[in-house]
């Protein structure tokens, strides 16, 4: 993550895992092996990404611990919600449909990462980065918080 940035690491991780899940629909030994390799590689690339994003999103100050606790509760709850969802989907349709649906949801996650997660990779001063772009989904970027601080100072409010 530190070498490529959070968005790049997340996109690589989620793409590999999604493709691995999509391969399971073929249900033959080479597809299962390829799926295991892709999902394992993707899982390794994204290791710690959710916790890092949670720390990035957490407000500074006294509410930081509570924010991280609720954030972790929400994404950890997916550990029991996801199997239930897949079980219901598999019962209602088939295993192939569940695998394809899960892979498609993962690819939608890739689109969300590209659109909503700002790149965190820092480049040396004066150098332009090809990965540098802003997020179209975030209202709370660092530039807006510094603008808000400047507005509060101009209005005479204590910051």
Automatic annotation (TrEMBL):
Residues 1-34 form the signal peptide. GO terms for cellular component: membrane. It is a multi-pass membrane protein. Residues 129-146 have a biased composition (Low complexity). SUPFAM superfamilies: MFS general substrate transporter (SSF103473). Its main location: membrane. Residues 1-159 form the Major facilitator superfamily (MFS) profile domain. Residues 124-159 are annotated as: Disordered. It comes from the Eukaryota. The chain crosses the membrane at residues 69-90, 97-115. It is found in: Membrane. InterPro entries: MFS, MFS_dom, MFS_trans_sf. One of its GO terms (molecular function) is transmembrane transporter activity. Keywords: Membrane, Signal, Transmembrane, Transmembrane helix. This is Major facilitator superfamily (MFS) profile domain-containing protein. It comes from Symbiodinium necroappetens.
């Amino acid at each position: 993550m530190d070498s490529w940035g959070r968005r790049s690491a997340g996109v690589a991780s989620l793409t590999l895992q999604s493709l691995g899940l999509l391969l399971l629909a073929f249900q033959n030994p080479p597809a299962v092996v390829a799926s295991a390799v892709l999902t394992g590689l993707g899982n390794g690339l994204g290791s710690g990404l959710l916790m890092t994003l949670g720390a990035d999103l957490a407000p500074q100050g006294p509410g930081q611990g509570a924010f991280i606790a609720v954030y972790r509760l929400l994404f950890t709850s997916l550990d029991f919600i996801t199997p239930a969802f897949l079980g219901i989907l598999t019962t209602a349709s088939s295993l192939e449909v569940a695998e394809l649906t899960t892979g498609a949801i993962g690819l939608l996650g890739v689109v969300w990462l590209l659109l909503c997660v700002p790149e965190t990779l820092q480049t040396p001063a004066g150098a332009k980065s090809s990965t540098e772009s802003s997020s179209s989904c975030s209202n709370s970027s660092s530039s807006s918080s510094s603008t808000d601080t400047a507005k509060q100072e101009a209005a005479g409010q204590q910051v």
